[in-house]
Amino acid sequence: MSTPRIFGDYESKWQKAWDEQGLYHAAQPGTIEAKEKFYGLVEFPFPSGAGLHVGHPRSYVAIDVVTRKKRMEGKNVLFPMGWDAFGLPTENYAIKNHVKPQDATTANVNNFRRQLKMIGFGFDWGREVNTTDPAYYKWTQWMFLQFFKSYFDESTGRARFVEDREAPVKGRGERGEGSGDTLPTTHYPLPSARMAYKTTTTINWCPSCKIGLANEEAIGGVCERCGSVVEKREKAQWMIGITKYAERLIHDLSTVNYLERIKKQQIDWIGKSEGAFIDFKVAYGQRLTVDGGDAVRVFTTRPDTLFGVTYVVLAPEHEFVSKWIADGVILNIDEVRAYQQASAKKADMDRTAEGKEKTGVKLEGVSAINPANGEEVPVFIADYVLAGYGTGAVMAVPAHDERDFAFAKKYELNIVEVIKPKRDIFQAKYSLVKKELESLGTPIENPEQEKDWQKKLDEEFNGFCKRVELGEICWPHEGSLMNSREFNDRYSEDAVAEITSWLEKKQSGEKTTNYKLRDWIFSRQRYWGEPIPIVICPSCGYVPVPEEQLPVLLPDVESYEPTENGESPLAKIREWVETTCPHCGGKAERETDTMPNWAGSSWYFMRYCDPHNDRAFASEEALKYWMPVNLYNGGMEHTTLHLLYSRFWHKMMWDLKLLPESIGPEPYASRVSHGLILAQGGEKMSKSKGNVVNPDDVINEYGADVFRVYMMFIGPFDQPAPWDVKGIEGVKRFLDKVWRLFEIADSELRIADSGLETIYHQSVKKISSDIETLAFNTAVSQLMVLTNAFTDAGGVPEEMVEGYLKLLAPFAPHLAEELWHTLGKGGSVHMSGWPTYDETKTVSASFELVIQVNGKVRDRIQVPSDISEDEAKAKALASENVQKYLEGKEPKKIIYVKGKLVTIAM
């Protein structure tokens, strides 16, 4: 060859050829001989109008490299791509630009597909899915109906179907007059007992998007889509009972290979805590409620502090507050309502922020009775308590909780010490004397000094205890109980269990496990989403749309802006809303809320297994063969959203026997995550900062292979890395060097010497291992080492040509394919088999021994690999360069680091 490397010619040529050959199509079970499968998955993108930026393809290239290696190893590889196309961003874009969401989605998908194809991914485009395709969302709706037709069986810990799946569900989630709920709940559970149910709840409301948000979509108190501060509103919403699966979502993480930080983030979000429910009966004025009356239920992890409760706090949204206002028992109604309104405008993060001054209002006319000692304590509402966490109420123990202490000080409330500080905890966390003692750096051996220090420690600890007793500071840790009647002198750990058991006997509390996780808000009052397939009949209640009538199509309309009253735009389309009840045939209306964009993405990995099946979401045969996903990569920002939801969705379907039992309750065997690509200089890429890099520009200038190799060489895959033009230039020079290897003058090289042979086999071993461990940057580095060795040798030995191009193929697929065919090789390099190595040839016959004198390198000599320690030291001492620095003196110490260096200390 004598032509320059014109990537524009061969890259487009091979992309077209691969597409025409169907090179990357995965064979379905039943169409091939028994063959081991590998299912590699990347999170399918939301196709925005802005198109890809260089940060998006990092994970795609990585899993493409892995799946190309697996395919070359002979596995039947599924590596699919599709589009998560429903949701707010497209709808907002469409509203802003006065286009239909359908048209915007089509244009955006076409642009994304074009960009992905020009990068040369080995996607099976024959399996492409789109969540907005009626053929796809038919099955999303069908799955929702299965959730609606099921409930959680506490005896088995699994979801199961109700006996009559087609029965309507009367009522609005509460048993009452006209509910029609007369049969046992195992036959006809109320809506709130079902896995999909509708109820009135406090939601996060985005005033800009005019939409309700799940907690996961309002992290930090702002809308994750537009950044607006969210408010609190009461609204009827469809919910999915994910909290029933909280324990299994934690436990089953032990059965999968996820990064530890991913597991931790999921566990922290679910927020499991062991403790007790405790009931505080309520008194109105001087009148204590009788049994069966109002009792405020709190959750606490510290029952050992119960005797120290001096007030109770409710969330401003707590249902009792509205009830007591309606009953006329609260005397300061105007003050309470004003505080409720102010709290509703605050974000959860703002309400619960550490260090923020706590505010509240006392409920005049209402008090609570401490079940431990019968003492009457005041009741407050305060915005640092959230209705969505725990029970929406807390027992306040200001002597032993810093938040309660600050509140009590502000409102001059009683502070009662019930836990004696523990000396060792105090010294570890608070003691300044101990820190001073430790700063001396040497132990105290003089008895008098030791006695003085002990006196200082005692005085400091006793002074601290006195301040706790006087209510000047709080002690939020464990210790021995005091002022707790028969439980005095018990240690906290023991007292927790004893007091909980005591409360259970008094029927004033019970041991429980609490979770921070809330049920999934599944309603969206927007147009661009899957219609919820429920008909609301005035006679029958909630009626599922018959499955044969699915999909319930999203109507094609001109106006889809959100309504000012918070209802879905679909509510205005009366010809679509008005329908007949599938159960009684009477007049009814369709549900006008749509599903969240997380619905379609919670099961797309299943559809990839059998995307053209019109009789099921996927066949049992296909699911048995392909599932679970072998390797799934996605962003850490989706750990508490998509990843949690999709794990739950899979478990529910598995419980309902809608998935083969053999595939197990987890959808992904392994989950990894990549670091962000930052703008040059280390800033986050942002359109507002003008630092977003378009992959089109990079590929047009350097080619797809340079782009791919650079994305893998930029740094450790799981770490963020800044975009660097100099790095791209370096990768270009590397691939140019590969190209020249096959046209340099000495092309008659046939046999490799032992040194080149060692480097080759070491490279095959290391690159193979690095791909498996996702150490792509070191794999590329080893390719560069091997390329330099071949260049120094005058070319690639004939026996290594195929192996070398195979190693290159996953990273630079176009260049490898071009060179493969230029050399007259048959078939495709991507189907040619992965190279093997000889372990015995990975060990070099010699190595460079580094010799240091007093920490400085004074010589480097080549020695046999099997050299002994004594021989290495002798050679080091015999070195002429080293002798100059020894000056005839005997070394104090000589250390040999095997296979690396000898260091001599004078």
Topology overview:
Blueprint: H1 7-21, E1 37-42, H2 57-72, E2 76-78, E3 82-83, H3 88-97, H4 101-119, E4 129-130, H5 134-148, E5 150-153, E6 158-161, E7 196-206, E8 211-213, E9 231-240, H6 246-251, E10 257-258, H7 260-270, E11 272-284, E12 287-288, E13 295-300, E14 311-314, H8 319-327, H9 333-344, H10 348-352, E15 360-369, E16 376-382, E17 393-396, H11 402-411, E18 419-421, H12 423-429, H13 432-439, H14 447-469, E19 479-481, H15 492-505, E20 509-515, E21 520-521, E22 534-537, E23 541-544, H16 574-577, E24 578-580, E25 587-590, H17 598-601, H18 604-607, H19 620-626, E26 631-634, H20 642-655, E27 670-673, E28 677-678, H21 695-702, H22 704-713, E29 721-722, H23 725-741, H24 754-772, H25 776-793, H26 798-808, H27 813-822, E30 846-853, E31 856-864, H28 869-878, H29 880-886, E32 893-897, E33 901-905
Parallel strand pairs: 1-2, 1-26, 3-4, 10-27, 14-16, 26-27, 28-29, 30-33
Antiparallel strand pairs: 5-6, 7-8, 7-9, 9-21, 11-12, 11-13, 11-15, 11-20, 14-17, 15-16, 18-19, 22-23, 22-25, 24-25, 30-31, 32-33
Helix pairs in contact: 1-27, 13-14, 21-22, 22-23, 23-25, 24-25, 24-26, 26-27
Description:
It is a single chain. The chain has 906 residues and is α/β, with parallel strands linked by helices. It contains 29 helices and 33 strands. The strands form 9 sheets. Strands 11, 12, 13, 14, 15, 16, 17 and 20 form an 8-stranded mixed beta sheet that branches. β1 (37-42), α2 (57-72) and β2 form a beta-alpha-beta unit. α21 crosses α22 (704-713) and α26 (798-808) runs antiparallel to α27. 43% of the residues are buried. Residues 172-189 have low confidence and may be disordered.
